[in-house]
Each structure stands twice: as structure tokens, then as C-alpha cells.
Amino acid sequence: MRERADTAAKAALCLPVTSMKLPASDFKPCTSRFCLEEWQDIWNSAANNKLHAIYPTVGKCVHNNLVSRRDAVIMNRLKIGHSRLTHPYLLSGGDQPICTKCDTVLTVKHILLDCLELRDVRLKYFTASSLKDIFESVDNQSIIDFIKDVHFYNHL
Question: What's the sign of the alpha-carbon dihedral 48, 54, 55, 57?
């Protein structure tokens, strides 16, 4: 991509200078659109990009209408399923953590949907049958309040 731009810029050096005057503002929309399209192509071609599932379109990032940046970051971590509690084994080389109550692998999905120990607390904040359902239909503040109530907030 950069090579094409360099080649085009060098070729333009040989062209005659015109006296036609155009304000830079005329080029801004075209330039912006071109840059967004290029960025979108790069974003779409990134292999195994978990954030792509959350934000499929570049330049249209809505930060969950939450008050704090910390809460927005936490919502993104929940959506991609990563937390300090569920993924320390990736850095340490140890075993995946296990839910002590359910004797199953501890994941964000398990905490948000499946853990029987958290069922009653979960019902205070939301009911959902899938992660997609949680993130599409449950108010973000309810999710944040739930993870605070179950003491998961500081492990994200």
C-alpha cells in the first residue's frame, strides 16, 4: 500500500503545476473516506482479532455509554472473554483456573451465565441465555453492577 502511494507521489513530481486553486476543505471528505476504507480493509483482514467481533466497523466506536473509561474497558474485556482471573495461566504456563463451586473451567462465560453459585445474584441484575443476549439486551450498568456484586470487577 505504502509503495503505491510513494510511486504515485513520485510520478506526480513530473506533472506541470496548475494554477487552479482549490481549498483543502474540498479534499478532506475524500481523504477521510479513503483512509477509513483502507483502515477497514486492514481491520477486516486481521486474523483472530477478538475486538473485530465487538467493533466490526472502524471509526464507529461507541464506548458503551458508561461513565468511566474503566467500565468501558471492563465491558470490552468481558466481551472478548479475557480477565486476570480467568487467563493468568497464559502467562504463567500453569493450568486453567477451575471454579471451586462447579468444578469446571473458570471462564467469563461461566461467571456471567453458568455458575450455579452466582445464580441468585445474577437474577437480581439480568436473565439471559447467551453471552450475545447479555451484551445485546442487558443494560451495561446492570452487567457492571453484577460483576461488582460478585467481586469480579477488580479481577478484570
Answer: positive
Q: Tell me how far apart the alpha carbons of residues 146 and 151 are, in angstroms, rounded to a whole number.
A: 9
Mind giving me the DSSP string for 30-93?
HHHHHHHHHHHHHHHH-TT-HHHHH--STT----TT-SSHHHHHHHHHHHHT--TTT-THHHH-
Mark 108-144 as b/e (b = at least 16 C-beta within 10 Å): bbbbbbebeebeeebeebbebeeeeebbeebebeebb
What distance in Å separates the CA atoms of residue 90 and residue 76, rounded to the nearest whole number?
Answer: 19
Reading the block at residue 100, the C-alpha cell is 471451586
Rounded CA separation 103/97 (Å): 10
pTM of the model: 0.66
Q: How confident is the model at residue 115 (pLDDT cuts 50, 70, 90)?
A: very high
Is the distance from CB of 101 to CB of 95 less than 8 angstroms? no
Helix (H, G, I), strand (E, B) or coil at 146: helix
Q: Mean pLDDT, to the nearest integer, of 22-48?
A: 85
Domain residue spans in the chain?
23-61, 69-155
